[in-house]
Amino acid sequence: MLFIILLAFVPAFFFSWFLYWIDRYEKEPRWLLFAAFFWGGFFAIIGALIFSLIFQVGFGAVLHDATLEDIAGGSITAPIVEEFMKGLAVLLIFFIFRNEFDSLLDGAIYGGIVGFGFAATENVFYFLSAYDEGGAGGALVLFALRVGVFAWGHAFYTAFTGLGFAVARTNKNPIVKIIAPVVGYILAVFAHSFHNTSLLFASGLGSLALIVLIEWTGWLIFLGFVIWLIRREQGLLKKHLIAEVASDLISDAQYDTAVSFFQFSARLSAISGGTYRATNRFYQNLGELAHKKEQLEKFGEERGNTAIIQNLRAAIAEDAPKAAV
């Protein structure tokens, strides 16, 4: 059991850390990301199992054919139910922790983390089944497929739901606020259904290779989109932090470090100088400040944006003398 759990969860934690790492300019709270991961790996799994059984009984009563029931389960039930249950985590973050939902990238990050939590627990069940049938070798073969080849599946699907809520969060149009999460969920279900249906009808290495090619192409395109979102956030920091240089809140060097994608020299200097926590907090607060200024510009006060900005400036001023560059 320990072997199976490690096979399932260690890669999921690594991929989740990667998502956390690429969120360069305004990282989400680690506790909230962990909660999203836990929702995917516990509540979403339980809900998906319950509703899948209900759908399975319904399809069995109507179809009376084992093959058709398998197709309906993989192509219809699993995508609809699993993406709904995973999407509930993003929905809760959207409403309860709205101040932490600042950008399009945040939506993709939260959706992806929930997906990895779901995939980790789901893989435990799959790997146990493979272990029962083929021992450690069987589990490792399935590991190579589900973690080595299709690792980004669940994160990719639910990222669409996250993006839908992020579009709603960053848009003032009431129609867009309603439609965007629905469109995001539909895209998540479609991508999930495409994967499941393709594997159901795959025959031989040729068709499997084509499925892998199509899915990896989609993932790489999405990665390109994420990189564009990161560059977009970089532009947002440049836009809003230049005024903080003019007001002498931060120095030119601190501004350059804040808008840089790689801040390794600052982090190393902070470690050697014993100011890592203050430096990390300083640049995180600068990212938060830029996003709150953007929200104040677009939405006005909303949930006390001016007060939040004032508190962030006070915290930045306190850490500025200790922050490495």
Give the low-pLDDT segments: none
Count of runs of 4 or more consecutive helical residues: 11
The major beta sheet can be summarized as: none
Give the class from helix and strand content and strand pairing.
Answer: mainly alpha
Compressed to H and E, one letter per element, the order equals HHHHHHHHHHH
Characterize the overall form.
elongated
Features:
325 residues, 11 helices, 85% helix, elongated
In summary, what is this structure?
The chain is mostly helical. It has 11 helices and no strands.
SSE blueprint and pairings:
Blueprint: H1 2-22, H2 30-63, H3 66-96, H4 104-149, H5 153-169, H6 174-201, H7 204-246, H8 252-258, H9 264-273, H10 276-299, H11 305-319
Helix pairs in contact: 1-4, 2-3, 2-4, 3-4, 3-5, 3-6, 4-5, 4-7, 5-6, 7-10, 9-10, 10-11
Task: Provide a descriptive summary of the structure in words.
- The chain is mainly α.
- The chain folds into two domains: 200 residues, no CATH class; 83 residues, no CATH class.
- The radius of gyration is 22 Å and the shape is elongated.
